[in-house]
Amino acid sequence: MSPFLILAVDIAGVLILTATALALVRLVRGPTLPDRVVALDMMTITIVSFCGLAAVRFDEPAFLDVALALALVGFLATVALARFAERARARKAEEAE
Predict the structure, then answer these.
(1) Interatomic CA distance for residues 84 and 73, integer angstroms
(2) From start to end of the chain, where are the E strands?
(3) Each residue of 41-95: pLDDT tens digit?
(4) Which one, of 70, 91, 87, 79, lies nearest residue 37 by Cα?
């Protein structure tokens, strides 16, 4: 691997880790459930990106399998949390009537 590609992957890794840390802050601080769901989805996407970078950096295609599986699980988690939030909102509206 060329030195330029190694540098680019290292810089991208630092940026992805920074994005993951910022998403973690949003996940902890909230303030609402949709904010937390979006932060969790962003963290999943950044971790998938990090797996892709690791596959390039270490020349190991197994990381791509991990990234694919994590992306599928992250999608299912986002759908489940969105359904939960929708049901909670409907339940609140029902109780208000």
Answers:
(1) 16
(2) none
(3) 999 999 999 999 999 999 999 999 999 999 999 999 989 988 888 888 888 888 8
(4) 79
How far apart are the C-alpha atoms of 27 and 21, rounded to whole Å? 10
8, 12, 14, 15: CA torsion to nearest 10: 140
Q: Is the pLDDT of residue 97 over 80?
A: no
Q: Which two tokens stand for residue 22?
A: 């910022």
Say what the pTM is: 0.84
User: Which domains, and CATH codes, for the chain?
Assistant: 3-96 (1.10.287)
Q: Rounded mean pLDDT of 24-41?
A: 90
Inter-axis angle of helices 3-29 and 33-57, nearest 10: 160
Residue 59 Rama label (left phi>0; alpha psi -120 to 50; beta): left
d(CA 65, CA 69): 6
Please give the Cα distance from 63 to 1 (Å, whole number). 17
